[in-house]
Amino acid sequence: MLDMTIDEALEFFGSEAGKHTSLDKKILSKIQPLADVGLGYVKLGQPSSTLSGGEAQRIKLAFFLTKGVVDTPTLFVFDEPTTGFISTILIN
After folding, report:
1. Which of 11, 26, 34, 79 is most buried, by CB atoms within 10 Å?
2. How much is the pLDDT for 4?
3. CB-based contacts of 80: which residues, under 8 Å, 6+ apart?
4. Would you put residue 84 in left (φ > 0), alpha (ψ -120 to 50) or beta?
5. What is the mean pLDDT of the chain?
């Protein structure tokens, strides 16, 4: 399982629409933000020490996205190239 990419895990846990257990839903809610920021190719078991600076920043962004709506606006400043980002993520 740790050899799966984020995209493969989304497909695995998201298969059989409508038949998700509460554990499946919890797993999906944690890994979907990683795919949303363009990290679908990263393996679940990939050591954090092997990630680039930009990938590490996107993981931090994905973690923030799991927190839901906040009362005050948040500004993110990225000091790594944003290659791989979807332009709508950068605008929003």
Report:
1. 34
2. 96
3. 52, 53, 54, 57
4. left
5. 82
